[in-house]
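Quiz preparation item.
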């Protein structure tokens, strides 16, 4: 690390330069604030370590000069005249940390390690963002590199893509990457969450409707196929659509033609379709709930997104990218917190990690996410969003199924039996909650 040491005491400058040089850092010294500001104008440093009490140009001036650079240089301020006022003033001006003289060398080295980690994370984020043309999908694991390679291969074509993977793995972000890398990038990308709409509403949303075609249809309305003309239509949770809508969708994929609900005019659709599902469509075909011919039309080019628990090497970079997003680049991930994240199984995948990092930036006040900013018991496989609330954890030694059941019962009690609200408390989709309700004999979706 390239470090500028600023102090009007030669003995202090020499001691710091020697100690940090032994640790492999490259150090330049300045005997006062004026010399330091000139050095900052002419050179690039990773960190500045400056005394506060200097004349005629003090450490606050050095701090402001360092923070005004692009990118801003991290600054550690030190003083023998420690007070709450000077510490607050320095941190308000952007100082990374504050040391009171005399201090021990390990204290300084610990701060420098944190700064170096922050620099490394920032570089990784920028590098990956450039690599992915600005998309927010990050990952250096081999599993994600395989996904990116497939995306690049198919993006230039008009081939229909089927994204498969658990909820929260980033299917919509991958769909957006397909669109942004395609020749259709200047046209709209329109998304439809098929599982959130009834059959009638979904048909109207996809194909549009004519005035008077059903109660409440007071005027003609263009559907998502029309609105995505020339671009990409993303059909999320394609496994949730009814058989009657499947038939109409099959026709669009085969013939590129459709009619609005209640209309007779045939319209054409110049649209590239990207579909996504967390369901096992092959099993649904055997059960008769999904059309085999539609499946083959959709899965011309399938891409499987790995769950986060199978690519844990991506967790630190993902976590830091979300911290940068929610903390304006001022929050980094501590080592102990990083280990806790790595030990968790992430049932909610990347979406759960994003929510947890947003919460951590709210709780974090010193610029580093520590264990206390994470939900208790995170490393024991519990849902981060559940534990993050005021749910009561049962006694130690309880098996995981009993613990999960206990948390579900508490969520239902808190929501007064409203399952949608309970699912929200638990960080689950409604369908995931229904699956667990049936597992523990607590009810089902039909109730």
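Solution:
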């Amino acid at each position: 690390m390239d470090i500028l040491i600023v102090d009007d005491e030669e003995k202090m400058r020499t001691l710091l330069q020697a100690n940090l040089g032994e640790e492999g850092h490259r150090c330049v010294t300045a005997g006062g604030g004026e010399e330091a500001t000139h050095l900052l104008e002419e050179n690039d440093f990773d960190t500045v370590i400056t005394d506060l009490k200097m004349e005629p140009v003090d450490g606050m001036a050095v701090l402001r000069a360092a923070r005004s650079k692009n990118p801003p240089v991290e600054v550690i301020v030190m003083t023998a005249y420690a007070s709450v006022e000077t510490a607050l003033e320095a941190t308000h001006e952007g100082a990374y940390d504050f040391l009171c003289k005399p201090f021990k060398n390990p204290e300084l080295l610990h701060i420098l390690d944190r700064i170096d980690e922050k620099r490394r994370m920032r570089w990784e984020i920028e590098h990956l963002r450039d690599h992915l043309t600005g998309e927010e999908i990050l990952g250096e694991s081999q599993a994600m590199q395989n996904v990116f390679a497939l995306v690049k291969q198919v993006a230039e074509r008009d081939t229909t893509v089927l994204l498969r993977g658990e909820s929260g793995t980033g299917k919509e972000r991958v769909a957006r990457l397909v669109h942004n890398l395609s020749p259709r990038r200047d046209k709209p990308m329109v998304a439809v969450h098929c599982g959130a709409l009834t059959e009638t509403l979904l048909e109207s949303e996809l194909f549009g409707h004519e005035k008077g075609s059903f109660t409440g249809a007071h005027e003609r309305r263009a559907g998502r196929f029309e609105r995505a003309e020339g671009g990409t239509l993303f059909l999320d949770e394609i496994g949730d659509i009814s058989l009657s809508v499947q038939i109409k969708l099959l026709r669009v994929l085969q013939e590129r033609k459709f009619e609005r609900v209640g209309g007779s005019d045939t319209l054409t659709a110049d649209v590239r379709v990207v579909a996504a599902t967390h369901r096992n469509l092959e099993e649904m075909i055997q059960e008769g709930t999904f059309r085999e011919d539609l499946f083959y039309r959709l899965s011309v080019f399938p891409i499987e997104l790995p769950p986060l628990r199978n690519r844990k090497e991506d967790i630190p970079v993902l976590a830091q990218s979300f911290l940068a997003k929610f903390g304006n680049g001022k929050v980094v991930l501590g080592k102990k917190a990083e280990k806790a994240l790595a030990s968790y199984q992430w049932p909610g995948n990347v979406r759960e990690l994003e929510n947890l990092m947003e919460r951590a930036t709210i709780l974090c006040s010193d610029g580093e996410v520590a264990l206390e900013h994470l939900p208790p018991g995170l490393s024991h496989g519990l849902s981060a969003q559940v534990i993050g609330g005021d749910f009561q954890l049962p006694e130690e030694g309880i098996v995981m199924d009993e613990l999960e059941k206990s948390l579900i019962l508490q969520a239902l009690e808190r929501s007064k039996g409203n399952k949608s609200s309970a699912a929200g408390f638990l960080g689950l989709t409604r369908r995931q909650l229904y699956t667990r309700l049936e597992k523990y004999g607590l009810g089902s979706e039909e109730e």
